[in-house]
Amino acid sequence: MDDYDVSIQEQVFHNAVREYIISLLLFILLYVSSYVIICQFKRKVDSEDMYAGQEDAIVYRISLWLCTFTLAVSAAAVMLLPISIVSNEVLHLYPKSYYVKWLNSSLINGLWNQVFLFSNSALFILMPFAYFFTEAEGFSGSKKGVMARVKETTIVLILLAILVLGLAFVASALINDDQNSKQTLFDMWNIYLPYLYSCISFLGVLVLLLCTPVGFARLFTVMAQLVVKPKLFRDIDEELCTARLEKENIVRKIQYRNTAPCQIANGHPNLELLQDQLKEAKSEIQELEKRQQVSSLRRNLVFPIVMLLLLALTVFSVLLVAHNTLLLLVGIKALPRGAKDAVIGISSLSAFGPVGAVVEILLILYPLK
After folding, report:
1. Where, by residue number, does the polypeptide cross the bilayer (predicted)?
2. For residues 63 and 129, is the Cβ–Cβ distance under 8 A?
3. What is the C-alpha to C-alpha distance for residues 98 and 96, in angstroms, rounded to an integer?
């Protein structure tokens, strides 16, 4: 019996070590990738003259590390759902494979919990600290240095936290007219912090609601550019004639620039810019010639069908959201009361199997394009 208990404890220990190693490797990969991305967008300088001294260089370096950590956590949060979908499909297809034993529900749930913890830490602590740390100079009269900036940043963050919690307390008092004067520190931790988190989530939902119509409009615009429109909506012959005239105009400018005895005055495009415009004009003419060769049947039939399908998809999505909202308001459908550890690999998440899972992942990652 003791040997059996020891073997179970060893198995639990090895599983925990394996999960921590996998999480650490994923975090290192995301951190390095995030650092490379930030370095690509960071302002290039030939020297360190932009820093007033070694102290400023250290401050900006620490802020860069914090921003890199936040970007890595954000990338992990974006990749969590696709990773969960892929893991579920792999375990569903190969439930007894030895090579996917490490891919289990405990690992996925652990990744979700870690990303949730780190994302909240980055949102409420690290990013505000990085901003105020770069702006801090230390209190007047105190000894200058990095630690003086750390102290000032910490004090500012504490005051900001008190201000935000006070605003949350006032908002809750305005909404709920109960004995607010008898609230304790326990109530502050268990009521107002979740309330503040709900307010931030509500702001995210509002941003989503504002961006969704823009996304649908962008979808119609992209499909209208890909599909050839009928002559009623677009006259390709006229556009092709205009493009050819623009090409001839650019060619004449280039010939004049090559044969002119003197330079053209300031304000006129140079030769390289004219050559780039000529390349763009040629590519536009080729694209218009391809669209001109499309048959009238395809031109008059495909465009209405595609637009009707997009319109039907938009209406279906709006009706589905409205249906779920009404069910929640009436009380027929309730939100999940508590978080439960989901078991992956039992069944496929999509009715179409792996193909449906791939489509779901593409739909999730498409906005990142």
Report:
1. 20-41, 62-85, 111-133, 154-175, 195-221, 301-322, 342-366
2. no
3. 6
The owner of tokens 């415009």 is 277
| Domain membership flag for residue 175 | no
- In this structure, the answer to whether residues 17 and 83 fall within a common structural domain is yes
Tell me the CA end-to-end span of the chain in Å, nearest whole number.
57
pTM: 0.62
* 9 and 129 together in one domain: yes
Whether the CB-CB separation of 94 and 354 falls below 8 Å is answered with no
Alpha helices, H only, the chain: 2-41, 54-93, 105-121, 127-135, 146-175, 185-187, 193-226, 236-259, 271-292, 296-330, 354-365
Write out the residue range of the structural domain in which residue 249 sits.
228-330
281 in the same domain as 234: yes
> Could you tell me which residues come within 8 angstroms of residue 292 by beta carbon, excluding any fewer than 6 positions away?
236, 237, 240
pLDDT in tens, 303-348: 778 788 888 888 887 888 788 778 777 766 655 554 455 667 677 7
Closest C-alpha to 369, from 229, 261, 215: 215
- Rg from Cα positions in the chain: 30
